[in-house]
Amino acid sequence: MRSVDDTHMGMLKAFHFLLARRNNPPPPKRKHTYETAGTVVHASRRLLPAERSKVAGLVAQLAVLDPHTDGDQIKDILKQLGAQPVKFVPVKRETPISTSKTYPYRSKKRGG
Asked: In the chain, which residue ranges form alpha helices assigned H by DSSP?
């Protein structure tokens, strides 16, 4: 008789769980759009102080140069950075998509 009570109680708990979830659904997940926002230089391992200062100097030089006029210098600096223990990581800008209605009482089906 004990196993019947346990099974009955388990069924009641399962139905309660299903009803509670239907009455209180989880909030919808936020959706985002992603846009490229450049590249960042990350160390592939822990850098020594000399390496860190060299990489920081090269990155500072890159920030000053203009890609339209100083293309050869940029290529040289990127070659020097490639010799260092760093990797180039793309950065993406995350923009949330709005799920709000334009006007809460407007319905396109009814011509509003």
From this structure: 2-23, 49-64, 71-83
User: In angstroms, rounded to a whole number, what is the distance separating the alpha carbons of residues 18 and 37?
Assistant: 44
pTM: 0.55
DSSP 27: P
CA separation for the pair 59, 17 (Å, rounded): 56
Q: How far is Cα 3 from Cα 9, in angstroms, rounded to an integer?
A: 10
- How far is Cα 45 from Cα 85, in angstroms, rounded to an integer? 7
Coil, strand or helix: which one is 39? strand
35 Cβ contact partners less than 8 Å away, ≥ 6 residues apart: 92, 93, 95
The two structure tokens encoding residue 112: 């509003």
β-strand pairing of 32-43 with 86-96: antiparallel
Chain center to CA of 54: 30
Per-block mean pLDDT, blocks of 10 residues, the chain (112 long):
76 86 75 90 93 94 90 92 93 86 62 54
